[in-house]
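Data deposition worksheet. Section B asks for the primary sequence of the deposited chain exactly as it was used as input, without tags or linkers unless they were present during the calculation. Section C holds the resulting structure in token form. Section D is free text for depositor observations; keep each observation to a single sentence. Incomplete worksheets are returned to the depositor.
Section A, Depositor: J.P.
Section B:
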Amino acid sequence: MAKFKYFPIQIIKPNFHSELVDLVIYLDVFRSKKLQGTTSSRIFFQLKSLYNTLESIYSARIEGNH
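Section C:
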């Protein structure tokens, strides 16, 4: 039987003056905005579904699945 090896958890302390933190906060604010545009909702959701399918396929390929 394999012996359990303990690794202490490291807490990440982000630098709140970094560009990455600014981007995460911006994306969180952007996420709460209402969707609007000139594309009909039917076409928008078809494109969204297609994008999600392609994203799943590419993710599976990265992991070595078919």
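Section D:
The chain has a mean pLDDT of 87.
Residues 27 and 33 are 10 Å apart (CA to CA).
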